[in-house]
Amino acid sequence: MKGIIYTKDIYREIVPKIIQDEASWSSFLKFSAVHYQMGFENASLLYAQRPDARMVETYAGWREKDRYVRKGSKGIAIIDSNSYRSYIDHVFDITDTNGRGRPEIWRLDKNNEKEMLAFLHAKSANAQDYVKEAVEREVYSEDKKYIENISELCRYNSQNPEHIYDITNAVIQSAQYMAAVRMDAKPLPVSSLLPVLATAPRLMVYGLCNTALSVAGQVLTGIEKAFEVKREKQRAAEERAEGKTEDRKEQEIGGKYHIPEWGSGSHGISALRDQPHQNADFHKRQGNGSHKGTETAGYEQLSLSFDGGYAHCDGGRAL
Asked: At 316, phi and psi to the nearest 5?
């Protein structure tokens, strides 16, 4: 219980610092762009404790990525509210780990920009335009209920309902900034949300900040999935190419030498496929697979568990 209280105190202390001016808010959004699958509260906790963190995972999560946490490394406290009772979990930055595993991090740049926009079926000519359109599309999506959540925050926290449109645009601006930074596109200024946050009640501050991070996180997660699709297609193409190479080799050998049919002797290609070293590799893979699922990698992200709120944030793993 003491750990929960202490972590909540960290959260309440860091939030006013994050929103105190444009430079502070921009700095936090740049940090959150790296850790975009976190909700606002855990991104805030991470920022308060390790503002230089580059990639975080749980102890078990790093082991799954073929890395291990060095002895004596200090964990970064986060809140896991995914179960019936909230509890403290800890993550570790990649700089606190060693190992052969090298986690892949997607990167959008001028070399792959057009290709990735095509994967995303985007009509935009560049990443900057895509960010603007994707964030607005996410916010105004009916099934996500972002507009409804913002309206409730304004209504229940004594804000003028007539300002909902302006507040929504301010949230969009912050989400666009965060997504643009991660996509290596030129971000716009983020000053329009700060006057609202400066005078808003605490619950509304948490809700609007969480909404901005949630929107940007969803857009960036969609881009990450596009990169995963691209990698899978590349792997499949490489495997097909390797298969054709092997077929050509067999055909060349078969054209030059006599290849006995299956069962006619122990010197043919078919016989070679069943040699002990081939089966050993197969059993080895089976043995490795038997351990799959014994550890839970990553951790589920949270909505506002400290003080309630109306904005929501989907789950995901930290990268």
From this structure: 175, 175
